[in-house]
């Protein structure tokens, strides 16, 4: 069986991929396990050489990669270039360089007398075979991108991309092969949900990005198998605008990071709280900026600001959230009406007169919407921002940096930016992940972003020792009294002066 891949901006079929069953996934897993030891034995330098060649390959083939991403997602050329191609190239170089440092052996010191004179070492070993289940909104960054640190650590990897956007993963697999990655080390298993379920049953660790509901099922199956799982799930990311904020900058970022990739970003701005003294001016600025956006079928650089939505059911979600808000008393200052046209579209929509009784303020919308709510003060903004099952990302805007940072530190989110938004994701040194269960467990980026693909091993090497350790058999009363006295001396706290 095959799956038709559609251009969501036009509704046209642009390719087909196999819908692989559990047997095919098991075969791919066997090939990957057979190839993994040789890949691991190349060491960091050998693996880095392949990764750096792939970094150059992405740059050299940027137009082809962008065209593939744009065709299967409907996103604008610049969205694909800045958030996907740029990320992918940077990630290959970053993990090639940082893997040896993040996974370096660490000497451990101990105060325990029984290990005096011995060498204690903490080290990392690859888990073996990593499975990655990727989302449809970022087929390179949040799908293929998770494979890069796993490969750098010495693992074999099987990627199950979304059935909606599989072509980018297949293109990049071709690039890896051209860059010298040994056969079998990386594989793409295309298919629907059953393929993903089969993948969880075959691997030693699973990395999943997607909805909270599906993440729960992945976590439950991983728990049954007792394998580690890292999950990046939903977000309902708040933005707080303080009364002293640079309103031009705040409005620019609100418009851009709420609508970027047509709002289909897990850390995009999904709700906005503005202190009352500047609320009206902020709304006017944002409305003008959003009204000026050009939405249409991407046709190369500079052709549109927004493309289409990618996943057909997501248009229904966006339409429902907006319609319910309007019925409950909200007003749409831009957009707000689903168009009748070929493809999967929803216009950029700014909503006011919203409150937390509305779904659009509580559930992940994942579309080009920005509900804006007035608040009396920062305390109320923090309370409302934290009134959510999600805790992925947040942002605060204010000229008084000490106050803005204080507000940021009170937010229950895994990542918070001050006078900026979303750009933290490009800092690969900075860990990224949820602070609440609905937003997932585990981290991308930083040291945690690669050690999660490894097993820890502790080594104790006895360099010099007595002919017979005093604590071993046979027990003797005299030695026991000596040991008891020694233990009392070592563990007695200092007397207070």
From TrEMBL:
Domain (Aldehyde dehydrogenase): residue spans on this chain: 2-458
Keywords for the protein's UniProt record, in alphabetical order: Oxidoreductase
Active site per database record: 232
Highest taxon in the source lineage: Bacteria
InterPro entries xref list: Ald_DH/histidinol_DH (IPR016161), Ald_DH_C (IPR016163), Ald_DH_CS_GLU (IPR029510), Ald_DH_N (IPR016162), Aldehyde_DH_dom (IPR015590), Aldehyde_DH_NAD(P) (IPR012394)
Family that this chain belongs to: Belongs to the aldehyde dehydrogenase family.
Protein name per its UniProtKB record: Aldehyde dehydrogenase
Phylogenetic lineage: Bacteria, Bacillati, Actinomycetota, Actinomycetes, Propionibacteriales
């Amino acid at each position: 069986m095959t799956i038709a891949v559609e251009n969501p901006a036009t509704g046209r079929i642009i390719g087909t991929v196999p819908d692989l069953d559990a047997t095919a996934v098991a075969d791919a897993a066997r090939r990957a396990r057979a190839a993994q030891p040789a890949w691991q034995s190349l060491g960091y330098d050998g693996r880095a050489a392949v990764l750096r060649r792939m970094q150059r390959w992405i740059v050299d083939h940027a137009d082809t990669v962008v065209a593939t991403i744009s065709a299967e997602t409907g996103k604008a050329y610049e969205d694909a270039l800045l958030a996907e191609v740029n990320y992918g190239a940077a990630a290959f170089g970053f993990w090639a360089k940082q893997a040896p440092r993040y996974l370096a052996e660490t000497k451990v010191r101990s105060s325990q007398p029984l290990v005096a004179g011995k060498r204690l070492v903490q080290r990392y070993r690859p888990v073996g075979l990593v499975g990655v289940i990727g989302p449809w909104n970022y087929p390179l960054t949040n799908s293929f991108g998770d494979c890069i640190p796993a490969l750098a650590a010495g693992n074999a990897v099987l990627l199950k991309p979304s059935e909606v956007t599989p072509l980018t993963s297949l293109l990049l697999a071709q690039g890896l092969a051209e860059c010298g990655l040994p056969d079998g080390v990386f594989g793409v298993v295309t298919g629907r949900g059953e393929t993903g379920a089969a993948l969880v049953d075959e691997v030693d660790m699973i990395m999943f990005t997607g909805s909270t509901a599906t993440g729960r099922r992945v976590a439950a199956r991983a728990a049954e198998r007792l394998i580690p799982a890292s999950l990046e799930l939903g977000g309902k990311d708040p933005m707080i605008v303080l009364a002293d904020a640079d309103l031009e900058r705040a409005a620019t970022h609100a418009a851009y990071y709420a609508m970027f990739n047509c709002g289909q970003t897990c850390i995009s701005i999904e709700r906005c709280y503005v202190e009352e003294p500047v609320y009206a001016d902020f709304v006017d600025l944002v409305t003008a900026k959003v009204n000026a956006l050009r939405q249409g079928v991407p046709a190369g650089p500079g052709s549109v600001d927004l493309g289409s939505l990618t996943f057909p059911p997501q248009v229904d979600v966006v339409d429902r959230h907006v319609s319910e808000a309007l019925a409950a008393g909200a007003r749409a200052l831009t957009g707000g009406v689903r168009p009748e046209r070929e493809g999967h579209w929803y216009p950029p929509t700014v909503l006011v007169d919203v409150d937390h009784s509305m779904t659009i303020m509580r559930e992940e919308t994942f579309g080009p919407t920005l509900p804006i709510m007035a608040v009396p003060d920062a305390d109320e903004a923090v309370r409302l921002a934290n009134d959510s099952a999600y805790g992925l990302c947040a942002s605060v805007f204010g000229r008084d940096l000490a106050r803005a940072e204080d507000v940021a530190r009170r937010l229950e989110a895994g990542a918070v930016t001050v006078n900026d938004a979303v750009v933290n994701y490009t800092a690969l040194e900075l860990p990224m992940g949820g602070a609440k269960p609905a937003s997932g467990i585990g981290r991308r980026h930083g040291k945690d972003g690669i050690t999660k693909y490894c097993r820890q091993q502790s080594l104790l090497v006895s360099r010099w020792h007595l002919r017979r350790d005093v604590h071993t058999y046979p027990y003797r009363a005299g030695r026991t009294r000596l040991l008891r006295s020694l233990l009392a001396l070592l563990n007695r706290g200092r007397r207070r002066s």
